[in-house]
Specification:
The structure holds two protein chains of two kinds.
Chain A: E1 5-7, E2 10-13, E3 19-24, E4 31-37, E5 43-50, E6 53-56, E7 65-68, E8 75-79, E9 88-95, E10 103-104, E11 108-112
Chain B: E1 4-7, E2 10-14, E3 19-25, E4 30-38, E5 45-51, E6 56-59, E7 62-67, E8 72-77, E9 86-94, E10 100-102, E11 106-111
Parallel strand pairs in B: 2-11
Antiparallel strand pairs in B: 1-3, 3-8, 4-5, 4-9, 6-7, 7-8, 9-10, 9-11
The chains are: A mainly beta, B mainly beta.
Chain lengths: ~110, ~110
């Protein structure tokens, strides 16, 4: 059973461009979570999604950030008009229905020039 | 919301010694407490977890204890090895919703 997969692993964008981060959960997992990790800091919750539904987006900035988890395909975290402060590692985690254990992917390291 | 505090932020031990990391949480409704290990450049990996109906859990050299009355829980690593060097995160989540709140992390260095 493959683990949580994220791509790209590294992403470089210039200020003002868009960043798209993808996450494929483990097989059988229908819950996806996105976290942001700044250098030397802990993991900050951003958004929790189930298939086609956003359950909790309380940790996501109101502007420029959006997330989706379509019926088919990976979950996508989208950052529009990136700024230098968006530079961070973004981690996706997944869990099966009715279970609270989350399994993390390897992360996408976003660098904004 | 939940607030998780973790200490120490850095910890150096000699190989073979024990390491202890402590966390406190604020929400008495929290009932699930996982611990993650993160190596440089990698994602967090679940190493052990404990639920509120259990006071202690052990897996080889790793053990966790939970004191619900005091709202604190601890990770104990015995007979440390250089490959234990990493950042360790404690976390807490509540009943019925899987949002997890993480501590700030402890950077453990095991000196050979």
């Amino acid at each position: 059973n493959a683990g949580v997969m994220q791509n790209p692993r590294h992403l470089v964008r210039r200020r003002g461009q868009e960043a798209r981060l993808r996450c494929s959960p483990m097989k059988g997992h229908s819950h996806v979570y996105w976290y942001r990790q700044l250098p030397e800091e802990g993991l900050k919750f951003m958004v929790y999604l189930q298939k086609e539904n956003i359950i909790d987006e309380s940790g996501m900035p109101k502007e420029r950030f959006s997330a989706e988890f379509p019926k088919e395909g990976p979950s996508i975290l989208r950052i529009q008009q990136v700024v230098r402060g968006d530079s961070a590692a973004y981690f996706c985690a997944s869990s099966p229905p009715s279970q609270d254990t989350q399994y993390f992917g390897p992360g996408t390291r976003l660098t904004v020039l | 919301g939940e607030n998780v505090e973790q200490h120490p932020s850095t910890l150096s031990v000699q190989e073979g010694d024990s390491a202890v990391i402590k966390c406190t949480y604020s929400d008495s409704a929290s009932n699930y407490f996982p611990w993650y290990k993160q190596e440089l450049g990698k994602g967090p990996q679940l190493i052990i977890d404990i639920r509120s109906n259990v006071g202690e859990k052990k897996d080889q050299r790793i053990a966790v204890t939970l004191n619900k009355t005091a709202k604190h829980f601890s990770l104990h690593i015995t007979e440390t090895q250089p490959e234990d060097s990493a950042v360790y995160f404690c976390a807490a989540s509540g009943r019925g919703y899987q949002k997890v709140t993480f501590g700030i992390g402890t950077k453990l260095q095991v000196i050979p």
